[in-house]
Specification:
The protein is mainly α. The chain is 68% helix and 0% strand. Helix 4 runs antiparallel to helix 5 and helix 5 runs antiparallel to helix 8.
Length: 327
C-alpha cells in the first residue's frame, strides 16, 4: 500500500562492554531461536492450491454467524464476507507483526545484559519473518485487497514505541499482544479451510512461545522490586493494552463493503460486545476465549501483576479471575 506513519521515540540505549552468560534461561531461549529459524521462501509450500472464493476461515469465526444477519445472506454473499473478513483479520496480525519488529528493535537497545539483547535480536528477525510470510500469503491469495491499520492497533503500538521503559514495551508486547496472537494463530491453524494458511500459522506458532517466554523470565524479579506507585503504573499500561487488544477489534469496513447499513453495523457491534463479555459464541470462539483468558491470567500471576486492583478491570473485560489467582 506504500503507506506509513512516524512515531517520535526516545529511550535509553545500554551498550554492554562484557558478555558473560549471566541469565542462563534467556541464553537457552537464544540458542533455541537460532536452532529453530525457518525460511519463508524455502519452508512454506506456496504451490498448495485453494479457491479463496469459497471462504478461508471457519464461518463460525465471523461476528454475525448464527444471527438473522447471517441467515439473510446468500451462499455467495457469505463466502464474500468470509473472504473479506479473513483479509481484515490477517491484516491486523500483519500490522501487529510489523509493530512487534519495531518494538523488539528498541528492546535490543534498552534491555540490560547480553543474554537479553541476544534474544531480542533473534525476535526482531522472527517478527520480520512473520511480517513477510503474512504479507506474502495475503498477496498470493487475495492480490491487492487490503484494509488499513485499525485505530486501536495504531494507538497501542504508538504508545509502546514512544514509552522509554523496556518494562512497558515488554508488558504491552509479550504479555498482552503476543498472548492474544498465540491464541488466534492457534485457532486459525486448527480451523482454517486453507491448508496454506494452516501451515503458515503453525510455523509462526513455533516462534511465539519463545517470545512470551522472554517476558515470563525477565519481568518477575523487576516487578517484585517495584514500589507500589510503580506497580500501579504497570497495572495501568497492562489494562490499557488489554482494552485496546480485546475491545478494539471490529471490522466495520468489511460490513460496510458487503452492504450493511450504519445502523445494522452498530447493532452487530453491540451484539459482539455482549457476546465477548459473556459466555456466548460458537464452539471455536469459546475455545479461543478459554485459551486466551487462561494464558493471560497465568502470565499476569507469574510476573506479579495479578492484583486485587486488577481484578475488576479484568472482569470488566469478561475475564473471570478465580479467587485463588490473585495474591
Amino acid at each position: 500500500m506504500g503507506e506509513s506513519h512516524a512515531v517520535a521515540t526516545q529511550h535509553r540505549a545500554v551498550f554492554e562492554h562484557a558478555y558473560p552468560v549471566d541469565a542462563p534461561d534467556l541464553r537457552r531461549l537464544y540458542e533455541n531461536a537460532k536452532r529453530d529459524q525457518w525460511n519463508v521462501s524455502r519452508d512454506v509450500d506456496w504451490s498448495q492450491p485453494f479457491d479463496v472464493e469459497q471462504g478461508v476461515l471457519a464461518d463460525e469465526l465471523i461476528d454475525i454467524y448464527g444471527t438473522p444477519f447471517w441467515e439473510r445472506l446468500t451462499p455467495a454473499e457469505r463466502a464474500d464476507l468470509n473472504r473479506r473478513f479473513a483479509v481484515w483479520r490477517l491484516g491486523v496480525l500483519l500490522y501487529g507483526e510489523h509493530g512487534a519488529m519495531l518494538v523488539c528493535s528498541q528492546l535490543v537497545e534498552s534491555v540490560s545484559g547480553t543474554d537479553a539483547k541476544f534474544f531480542q535480536a533473534t525476535q526482531v528477525v522472527d517478527e520480520a519473518r512473520h511480517n513477510e510470510v503474512l504479507d506474502r500469503y495475503l498477496t498470493t491469495r487475495f492480490g491487492d485487497l487490503r484494509y488499513p491499520m485499525p485505530d486501536f492497533e495504531r494507538e497501542l503500538f504508538d504508545t509502546l514505541l514512544s514509552d522509554p521503559r523496556w518494562t512497558v514495551k515488554t508488558i504491552g508486547l509479550q504479555l498482552v499482544a503476543e498472548t492474544f496472537a498465540v491464541a488466534l494463530f492457534r485457532m486459525l491453524a486448527e480451523t482454517s479451510k486453507d491448508p496454506l494458511l494452516r501451515q503458515v500459522c503453525k510455523l509462526i506458532l513455533q516462534d511465539e512461545s519463545r517470545h512470551m517466554g522472554f517476558g515470563m523470565l525477565s519481568l518477575p524479579d523487576v516487578v517484585g522490586e517495584l514500589s507500589d506507585r510503580e506497580r500501579m503504573e504497570l497495572e495501568e499500561i497492562t489494562h490499557f493494552a488489554l482494552v485496546r487488544t480485546l475491545t478494539g477489534q471490529f471490522p466495520s469496513a468489511v460490513y460496510r463493503e458487503v452492504g450493511f447499513s450504519e445502523a445494522e453495523i452498530a447493532e452487530i457491534h453491540g451484539h459482539r460486545r455482549q457476546r465477548a463479555a459473556g459466555a456466548e459464541g460458537s464452539h471455536f470462539r469459546k475455545l479461543f476465549r478459554r485459551d486466551l483468558h487462561g494464558t493471560l491470567l497465568a502470565n499476569l500471576q507469574k510476573v506479579g501483576l495479578l492484583t486485587e486492583r486488577m481484578r475488576p478491570r479484568l472482569e470488566s473485560l469478561g475475564i473471570r479471575v478465580p479467587a485463588l489467582a490473585s495474591a
